[in-house]
Recover the amino acids of this structure.
């Protein structure tokens, strides 16, 4: 897990032509997307179309990702962050829990940019697997250069599920996807690009990475 410093990010939506600033508190994010090996260790399942322990897990829904976060938390003795609805399409987030969770899209973009202001944190071919260089498949995580904060594959390889609902009034329960994937053209692999999908949707270029909120500082010891 990589410690991500606090900051401020401006999110934007091309469809509505709106933008809005968000303050981001410090948090932790995994350096890599969840791999097939880790997903199998935690869940006993290998849902991906391509197979390889170091490949990012794909073919997983938002609901699958949330359940994985809870399962990983229990395995490590942490408090699960989510309470899922019966149908699995919605969840409640216990923001005081110390367990694993999905990043919010503001956290994701702040972490992706790593202090930069352009569309990408480096030259695309050096930091991302996308349509022009992926040879039509996902690639092992960490094969491209990381951003300045040590996060790999924030652009390209597989899209990342985020916690947020995209636009409840228009798209209902659809959740946010970020980062672009191995099948996408260059314009999709930018820090600001937003995509959406139903929380039960599964496809071979969508995965996720985990985040955690920092633990509260312990009370200072009393001196007598």
């Amino acid at each position: 897990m990589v410690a991500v410093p606090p900051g401020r990010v401006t999110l934007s939506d091309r469809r509505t032509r709106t933008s809005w600033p968000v303050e981001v508190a410090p948090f932790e994010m995994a350096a890599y997307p969840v791999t097939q090996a880790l997903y199998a260790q935690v869940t006993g399942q290998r849902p991906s179309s391509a197979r390889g322990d170091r490949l990012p897990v794909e073919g997983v829904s938002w609901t699958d990702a949330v359940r994985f976060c809870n399962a990983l938390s229990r395995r490590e003795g942490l408090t699960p962050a989510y309470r899922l609805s019966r149908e699995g399409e919605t969840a409640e987030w216990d923001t005081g829990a110390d367990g694993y969770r999905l990043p919010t899209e503001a956290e994701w973009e702040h972490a992706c940019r790593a202090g930069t202001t352009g569309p990408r944190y480096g030259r695309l071919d050096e930091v991302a697997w996308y349509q022009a260089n992926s040879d039509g498949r996902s690639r092992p995580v960490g094969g491209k250069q990381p951003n300045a904060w040590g996060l790999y594959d924030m652009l390209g390889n597989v899209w990342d599920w985020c916690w947020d609902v995209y636009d409840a009034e228009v798209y209902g329960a659809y959740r946010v996807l970020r980062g672009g994937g191995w099948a996408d053209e260059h314009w999709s692999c930018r820090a600001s690009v937003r995509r959406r999908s139903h929380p039960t949707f599964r496809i071979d270029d969508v995965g996720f990475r985990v985040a955690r909120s920092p633990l509260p500082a312990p009370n200072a010891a009393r001196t007598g």
